[in-house]
Amino acid sequence: MNRRLFLATIAALPTLAERASGALPLPRFQENPFALGVASGDPDDTSVVLWTKLAPRPLDPDGGMPPAAVEVTWELAEDEGFTKVFKSGKATASRLLGHSVHVEVEGLAPDRWYWYRFQAGQAISPVGRTRTLPSPNSSPERLRFAFVSCQHYETGYFTAYAALAKDKLDLVFHLGDYIYEGAGRDGQVRKHANPKLYTLTDYRIRYAQYRSDPLLQAAHARCPWFVTWDDHEVENNYAGDISERKGADVAEFLIQRANAYQAYYEMMPLRRRSIPRGPDMQLYRKASFGTLAELLILDTRQYRSDQPNGDTASPLNEAALSPKQSLMGIRQREWLQSALKASPGTWNILAQQVMMGMVSRTTSGEKKYSMDQWPGYAHERMALAQFMGDNKIKNPVVLTGDIHTNWVNNLRVDDRKPELPIVATEFVGTSITSGGNGSDNPATLASLRAGNPCVQFYNQQRGYVRCTVTKDTWQSDYLVVDQISKPEGVVSQRASFMVEAGKAGAKPA
Ligand code: FE
Ligand code: CA
After folding, report:
1. Model confidence over 101-123: pLDDT tens digits?
2. Which of 12, 243, 251, 411 is deepest in the core (most CB within 10 A)?
3. Domain boundaries defined on the chain
C-alpha cells in the first residue's frame, strides 16, 4: 500500500502549535457537550492524559458539533472540590479529531491522586479522578487494578462497571473489543444505532453510543485506564492488513482500518505517540508501577500474520507451528524481549488480548486449538515462554480477554507436556457483556481440565477480574454478574486465585 497516499489523506492532524493558536469564539451549546463524559489514561510517574470529546448530540454524524474548532479549558486539582487547582490550561477541540481533547498534563507529583474537569463555553464537564504512578525506583506496597474486555452493547447492560467503579482501584486495563462493528440487530437487549462500520463517521457514532452508557462513563471517571484493542475495534478476526472477508481488497481494508484506528485514538485517553498515521498506530507500550510491577501492554492484531488453517480450530500442525507465524510482529516481539530483560519489576504483567494457554476444547478425538489465539502462532508462543524461562524473567503474569469466559492457566513452554516446569501464570477475564447472561457450569471445568492440565479454573459468566499485587503475592478475584439482560444484575465474587512471588502458577486463594 502506498504509504504517502495515507499520509496525504490524514496529514491534516493538527500540530501542537496549531492547537495553541489564537483565541477562538466561545461556543454556546443547546445540549450538554460533555455527554460522553471524561476519562484519563496512560499515566506515568509525573504525567497523565486527560480526555474528553465534545458531542452535544452523540449519535449525530458530527456529534452535534459545528465545523469550527472550539477552545476547551481544563483544570487538574489536588482535591475533589477544586479548591487547590494544581494545573490548568487550554486545548483545542477540532473537527479533524472529532472534537476530541487529549491533554498530557506534565509536572505532577508521583503516586498521587488528582481530580480534573473541562469547560467549553458555559458548560462544565463531570469531574474525573486520576492518579500518577509511583516513581520508577520506588517500592510501592500494593497495586490494585481491574481488567476488562468485550463489551457488546447489544447483548446486555454494563452492570460489571457499576461494581468496578466502587472498587478501590489504581488502574483499569481494557484488553479490547471495546466496541463491536456489526449492524444493529433487533431482538437484543439494546440495539446498535447504525449499520456495519466502515467509515470514520460510522466508527465515531458507534463509540459515541457505547460511551453514552453512564456505567461505562463512571468507570472511566474513577481512575486512569490503559487501553488496548483486539479485533472488533476494526472487524472480527482481522489479521494485520487482512480482512476476514474472503478476497477483500487489502487497500480498501487498510482504509477501513485507518478509519477505525482514528476513531479509537479520538475516543481513548492515549498519548500523542499513539496518533494514528494512516492505517498504523503505536499502541504497544510499557509503564512501571515502581519496582513492584512492570506493565507491558501488547497489540496482537495490527502486526499479526494471517491465522493458519483458514482460521478454523485445528491440531497443532505444521501451519500452526511454522516459525513464520507471528502474533506480535518482529519489532514488537524484540521490543517485548528487551523490555522483559530490562524490567525492574517484581511482577511482569503482559496485558494483551488472546489466550496464551494451549487449550483444546474438543472433548473427544483429535485435539484442536483456536487458530486466532496464541496456538495459531505456537512457535512464537513457545519461544516466548522459553525466553521467559531462560532469562529468569521475574513472575510473568499474562492478562487476557477475547474469549468471553473466565480461565486461570498455568503456562509451560508446551502446555501439552505437564511434566515441564510452569513458567508463567495466565488470568483470562470474561466479557463485560459479550455472549449474554452466561452460566456457571463446574462440569465443563472438570472436562476441560481432564484434557488440558494447564487449566485451573473455568467459568462462563460475565464480569471482570480484580487483582491485588504486593511484592510477595498476587491475588486475582473473579467477579461475576448473575444477569446482564436486565439492569438490576447482582455482582458477586465467584473465585479467587493467588500466585506466590518466585513460584509461577496459580492456586485457589
Ligand atoms: Fe469479544
Ligand atoms: Ca476478540
Report:
1. 999 999 999 999 999 999 999 99
2. 411
3. 19-130, 138-173+281-508
The pLDDT value given to residue 86: 98
Would you say how long the chain is, in residues?
A: 509
CA distance 195 to 254: 19
Beta bridge partners of 285: 297
The third-level CATH classification (topology) of the domain covering 19-130 is: Immunoglobulin-like (2.60.40)
Report the greatest alpha carbon distance in the chain: 70
Quickly count helices (H) and strands (E) in the chain.
Answer: 10, 22
Segment 459-488 mean pLDDT: 98
In sequence order, which residues have a C-beta less than 8 Å from that of residue 60 and are 6 or more positions away? Answer: none
Q: Between the CA of residue 101 and those of 98, 128, 174, what are the distances in Å?
A: 9, 14, 20
Query: Is the pLDDT score of 15 beyond 50?
Result: no
DSSP 259-285: HHHHHHHHHS---GGG--BTTB----E
Residue with cell 488440558: 452
Residue of 220, 152, 146, 218 lying closest to 437 (CA atoms) = 152
412 CA to centre of ligand 1 in angstroms: 25
In tens, the pLDDT along 282-301 reads 999 999 999 999 999 999 99
C-alpha cell at position 486: 436486565
Ligand in nearest proximity to the CA of 434: 1
CA 176 to ligand 2 center in whole angstroms = 7
Report which bound ligand comes closest to the CA of 404.
1
Which positions ≥6 away from 138 have C-beta within 8 Å? Answer: 110, 111, 290, 291
Ligand 1 centroid–CA 230 distance in Å is 8
Q: How many CB atoms lie within 10 A of CB 425?
A: 26
Q: How far is the CA of 466 from the centre of ligand 1 (A)?
A: 19
- 411 C-alpha to ligand 1 centroid (Å): 22
The domain made up of 138-173+281-508 is a member of CATH 3.60.21.70: yes
Rounded to 10 degrees, the C-alpha dihedral 462/395/345/112 comes to 30
Distance CA 478, CA 467 (A): 9
243 C-alpha to center of ligand 2: Å? 14
Query: Is the CB of residue 465 less than 8 Å from the CB of residue 169?
Result: no
**Above 90 in pLDDT, residue 14?**
no
Q: How far does residue 446's CA lie from ligand 1's centre (Å)? A: 24
Closest among 457, 468, 450 to 494, alpha carbons compared: 457
The residues that bridge with 461 in the sheet, in sequence order, are 438
